[in-house]
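Changelog excerpt

This revision adds worked examples to the README so contributors can see how folded entries look when concatenated. The first example is reproduced verbatim below.
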Amino acid sequence: MSAATATVSASAGRAAVAGEGRIGLRANLRHIGALARRNMLQIKQDPESMFDALLMPVIFTLLFVYVFGGAVSGKGNQHAYVNYVVPGLMAMMGMNIAQAVGTGINDDFKKGVMDRFRTMPIARSSVLIAKIVVEVGRMMIATTILLGMGFALGLSIKTDVPHLLAAIALSTVFGASLMWIFILLGLTMKTPQAVQGVALLVLMPLQFGSSIFAKPTTMPGWLEGFTKVNPLSNLADAARALINGGPVAHSVWVTLAWAVGITVVTAPLAVARFRKKT
């Protein structure tokens, strides 16, 4: 790149940042739409990137139903476990799909794609929101496959369809909030491998130290205390109550509070980090 070209690019970048506050809502939505389309075309060119969303629900459902089902519900009674674990897996799907956002955005920086976006007169947040929009779509696909597997293994809806849709919506909202954490992680770590490694250190305790797979009352006291404050437990309990019936208000409101709190804290940090990342 020549010195003149570099100067022009830097000037354009500074102008874009300076003018970001003047970009209207309609323009922002148009930018998000265009960037989301770019991300979807990227998936079309690399269909292997959908393997996690397509295969993970199948593998997890079969694995946990037939591995943990016998231990929790008794050998030969795995079908009774389906109504317990599938709503919990809805929470797990959101977190695992969210992890891919961090590695993806880190890889885009490595390729120089994000540097190009930062020279354009668009809101910095639109680049990140477009990522989340596409990943939410992938999450919906994974959840649909998960429920399909659940129905094939004997899942029954003991409430009604609106309650099932509410469980899906709640899982999606919470999963979208988690994406901001992993975007911030992807913008902070140096390599996609580092992002994935740190993400696993966060994912494993939260997933297995929750009510997703087993009732907290069967756990040691110290672990039971952790599961009660684990946001994934609240989401799993809320989805379970919406599908199977039972008290739901407390778990739903706590989950929404977590989602709002995570977004309010991490979204501005992620956008600020996106502006400054070199």
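The second example, added in the same revision:
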Amino acid sequence: MQWTNLSEQNVYQNPWFRVNLADVELPDGSHLDHFVIRLRPVAAATVVNEANEVLLLWRHRFITDSWGWELAAGVVEDGEDIAAAAAREMEEETGWRPGELRPLLTVEPSNGLTDARHHLYWSDEAHWTGQPQDPFESSRREWIPLKVVPDMIARGEVPAANMAAALLMLHHLRLG
């Protein structure tokens, strides 16, 4: 049962996203007006050290008025390599430059409304380059034992679904 997007009309746009109104044909032939938010890709990265600790940021999200642990993340600039964007964001937000990044997973956090794709990476090495360039991105940055991640997620300490998925995948990869 496939829906078909026949056309889209732009309703609003800015440098970060576009809101479009789509004319969608449903499988029965009827039509539906559906809003679509078009977003630039997001890249995120973290590192897991030899002690199986993961580098995370503790930050507040004003939209949901919630606090939680996250990986460093941000939008991919036009023409920028996604892995390079993930490395750049990690260094800007944490002060740690990752070694070779490995793809962890790509998720679509709200594919019923947006075309957002979040590309998450990890490394098993990083080197300290200095204080974060974007210290306003988080209240603190900490090395958290990977073994406690499932309990943190269960307690709601990792509210963002993309971050929870990435951390559970890292937990599985490193600890089984």
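Reviewer comment on example two: The chain is about 20% helix and 45% strand. Residues 120 and 166 are 7 Å apart (CA to CA).
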